[in-house]
Amino acid sequence: MDLDILRHSCSHIMAAAVKSLWPETKLSIGPSIEDGFYYDFDKKEPFALEDLEKIEARMREIIAADLPFVREELSKKEARELFSKLGEAYKLELIDDIPDEKVSIYRTGKDFVDLCRGPHVARTSEIKAFKLLSIAGAYWHGIETNPMLQRIYGTAFDKAADLEKYLAVLEEAKKRDHRRLGKDLGLFDIYHEEAGSGLVFYHPAGAVLRNILETYEKQEHVRRGYEMVVTPHVLKWGLWKTSGHADYYAENMYRFSIDGQDYAVKPMNCPGHILIYKSQTRSYRDLPLRLFELGTVYRHEKSGVLHGLLRVRSFTQDDAHIFCLPEQVKAEIKDVLDFVFDTMKLFGFKDFHIELSTRPKKSIGTDEDWQRATDALRASLDEKKLSYDINEGDGAFYGPKIDIKLKDAIGRLWQCATIQCDFALPEKFDLAYVGDDGKNARPVMLHRVIFGSLERFIGTLIEHYAGNFPLWLSPRQVVVVPVKAEHEAYARAVEKELRARDIRAVCDTASETLNKKIRNAEVSKVPYVAVVGGREAAGHAVSVRSKKKGDMGAMPVEDFIRQLETEIKNKDI
């Protein structure tokens, strides 16, 4: 059975159950979505979590009754009369937005009717396995000035076994939630009331993890022929008018004035890189020119969509712009794809999902240039023999793009790298190079990120590894634990010796029992614990406990260090 149809039908049954339990509730919309469905309700009193059990029980009664889903077609006038009598104001607004003169409704039993295009299952008894999951708020039409509705999420499957498997993944996802682990492991926080929403504060451990990513990227970009640049955080508003962001992205930008001149905090790094390109005359021999920046950008995201590190108002992109000859475009795209896959495999990701996103309704540039850009991206994927889906209308306003999503340890997809092919901005900024014929020609511009944003990638890493980072990524690699206070001096000496070899070690001198200290290190997901007492001090040794291997016994400090260095160098996952 088609899961979208099954889930959409289940959302109708949920709405029927809610109307049965709370008749005064007004109905909004209830579509199927990836992995489930939701329905938005206007109810005077808020739903409580225990209400989900009541709704589920009523849904089971409706399913057991084996009621048919009956489709009827009405004129818009008849539909308005029907839903006016029912007091369903949101349905009336939806009817007004339907361009056709006829609309369809579905009846489920004698008491429930909903405006819907369908299709649905034939009878309610076809719903075999479902679960209501959560309650959230949602503005009508997603507009903050509209009424706040209550959204109930749920899911449904053909088989109970599939539902149980999905619920197990959800339970595991809760344990891996980067917001909880970020706090528990002292990586970051994002909830300073005094500072504002969607702004990340990296604590020492989180800053170490971020620095590992930054160091890797700087070294790897240089190896692959990129040149590092740094651009300002604020630029004149006129520059954003030229780029098109003022027309297509203004609602997400922070704008202000200084001395009567309008500026904006940058939401993107591209205009700054364009100005660097334009700072001197470029020859065809200079191309491709690959400019890379760890550029922090700022976007006015609505408070309702902020989500840990995954959706914030300030984040750092590993942003690069490649200015190249038209005949170099495919080779550059393929090189970026190789860069992405090499990097993701290094960080422990092996499965990917690729989408090619095409021209959106709001866009700039000619049809011909959009076709050329789309063809270049498609040909590059085809020549690499990569499978991909077409995501119609989801490109950037200046060009189509390839999106690469990572599959994590429990099968979830995370947005990561993006490659955009752009003929429009070089035209708008009148970019040029001197060709081999001595005449000016227009370069092509590729926008690309590898991690996407450091914030989102860190959140992805936390959830992929459930905070149990491999040694080379772990902010704290070793905790040195003295058995007694009298062994603290030796413990400090071991810590110093480890740090001198660039191993991230800390010494736990808290006034707690040995077992408690070891337990604290395990809870903090530190890969190794080095216990030191009198015997270890006498033999310049440590007793090692590994998070993966358990008790490894005593060994000389130098042997322990060499073992750590090998594991770090190999970047073992």
TrEMBL record:
Chief localization: cytoplasm
Enzymatic class: ligase
EC number: 6.1.1.3
Keywords linked to the UniProt accession: Aminoacyl-tRNA synthetase, ATP-binding, Cytoplasm, Ligase, Metal-binding, Nucleotide-binding, Protein biosynthesis, RNA-binding, tRNA-binding, Zinc
KW Aminoacyl-tRNA synthetase (keyword) present: yes
Binding-site residues, Zn(2+): C270, H321, H447
CDD domains: ThrRS_anticodon, ThrRS_core
Pfam families: HGTP_anticodon, tRNA-synt_2b, tRNA_SAD
Note accompanying the cofactor annotation: Binds 1 zinc ion per subunit.
SUPFAM superfamilies in UniProt: Class II aaRS ABD-related, Class II aaRS and biotin synthetases, ThrRS/AlaRS common domain
Subcellular location: Cytoplasm
Catalytic activity of the protein: tRNA(Thr) + L-threonine + ATP = L-threonyl-tRNA(Thr) + AMP + diphosphate + H(+)
GO cellular component, one term: cytoplasm
Any GO BP annotation: threonyl-tRNA aminoacylation
UniProt-listed HAMAP family: Thr_tRNA_synth
PANTHER family: THREONINE--TRNA LIGASE, CHLOROPLASTIC_MITOCHONDRIAL 2, THREONINE-TRNA LIGASE
Family statement: Belongs to the class-II aminoacyl-tRNA synthetase family.
Subunit and partners: Homodimer.
Protein name (database record): Threonine--tRNA ligase
Source organism per UniProt: Velamenicoccus archaeovorus
